[in-house]
Amino acid sequence: MSNKVAVLVAGSWGTALASVLAVNHPDVMIWSRSSEQVQEINEKHMNSRYLPGADLPANLKATTDMEEAVTGSRAVLIVAPSKAMREVAHSLKAYWHKDMLCIHATKGFETETMKRMSTVISEELGCEEGEIVVLSGPSHAEEVVRRCPTTVVVASLNQKAATMAQDLFMNADFRVYTNRDMLGVELAGALKNIIALGAGMSDGLGYGDNAKAALLTRGLAEITRIGVEMGANPLTFAGLAGVGDLVVTATSKHSRNWRAGSMLGQGTKLDEVLSTMGMVVEGIRTTKAAHTISEKYGVQMPIADQLYQVLFEDKDPRSAVEALMGRDPKTEMESMRLETWELWHS
């Protein structure tokens, strides 16, 4: 079997994961549409647009030709933004075959259909969704590329595929656990971005650590509630893909979602936030998706609902926080389903 691994595309997270793979394997090729980016990776071993100052492994090669990147690979890692996932997966179809391991590391929904990324990929490749592997967990690209100790999870309904992905990535700096709850891992990775936006907004308003701790705690309950309603295992939300990823995304200067939320809290309008960021902020699209999903399943998501009003209905951030604080009194466990509690304590 070939040792070649292909990575699509060369954003910050794709490049960071490609660098992990290049430590483990001699033949790793990353695909990008930008010829300037490809030239810089090949000649200077850098991706200055997305990971300024980071040195990439010399054996990591780049190409603008997807066929060149994918042909002969034993595994393909897709790290396209959620809005571009269907297009990238559609282009991959011509070169992909059923014996090729398919992994994705994108945290979001297809906004138009509310579909998870594994569903989008399976539809375009014509493969079973359960054969795809999802990589998620607390991991900033800026730290991964510097080989800071990082732990993630790979999830698939196919245990063999998950183990293959685990072996592909595992090294002294990058520890990988497996999980069969593919649905829960994808939902946790996407929905935590909403809470990270809220945490940034709280910090931008100057509300301090007490408010942020409460927001993260109630946000995790909110994510778990909708996740269980959709069929996920509640224990997943207490793991790396859930609370682990939530904490790192909602508290770090590296987090685009936190930074975007902080700017909103300081009074910057959404269009200006997006223009200033210059990169995809998945939490904004995910907030729109969560608003639709919560209505579909009849599950209350008050934090996501208030953020939706701030982002898309021009509600004042301070008024949104006041609305959350002014909700009717409840017991802490009132909104959690009994069967969820039983699973957590079994």
Automatic annotation (TrEMBL):
Signal sequence, renumbered to the chain: 1-18
Domain Glycerol-3-phosphate dehydrogenase NAD-dependent C-terminal: 181-322
Subcellular location: Cytoplasm
Record's keyword terms, sorted: Cytoplasm, Lipid biosynthesis, Lipid metabolism, NAD, NADP, Nucleotide-binding, Oxidoreductase, Phospholipid biosynthesis, Phospholipid metabolism, Signal
Pathway: Membrane lipid metabolism; glycerophospholipid metabolism
Main location: cytoplasm
One Gene Ontology cellular component: cytosol
InterPro entries recorded: 6-PGluconate_DH-like_C_sf, 6PGD_dom2, G3P_DH_NAD-dep, G3P_DH_NAD-dep_C, G3P_DH_NAD-dep_N, NAD(P)-bd_dom_sf
Primary enzyme class: oxidoreductase
UniProt EC number: 1.1.1.94
Binding site for substrate: K107, R256, N257
Binding site for sn-glycerol 3-phosphate: K107, G137, S139, K192, D245, S255, R256, N257
Keyword Membrane annotated: no
GO MF annotation terms: glycerol-3-phosphate dehydrogenase [NAD(P)+] activity; NAD binding
Binding site for NAD(+): A141, R256
Catalysis performed (reactions): sn-glycerol 3-phosphate + NAD(+) = dihydroxyacetone phosphate + NADH + H(+); sn-glycerol 3-phosphate + NADP(+) = dihydroxyacetone phosphate + NADPH + H(+)
PROSITE patterns membership: NAD_G3PDH
Active site: K192 (proton acceptor)
Family affiliation: Belongs to the NAD-dependent glycerol-3-phosphate dehydrogenase family.
UniProt function note: Catalyzes the reduction of the glycolytic intermediate dihydroxyacetone phosphate (DHAP) to sn-glycerol 3-phosphate (G3P), the key precursor for phospholipid synthesis.
Name of this protein: Glycerol-3-phosphate dehydrogenase [NAD(P)+]
Species of origin: Paenibacillus mangrovi
Lineage start: Bacteria, Bacillati, Bacillota, Bacilli, Bacillales
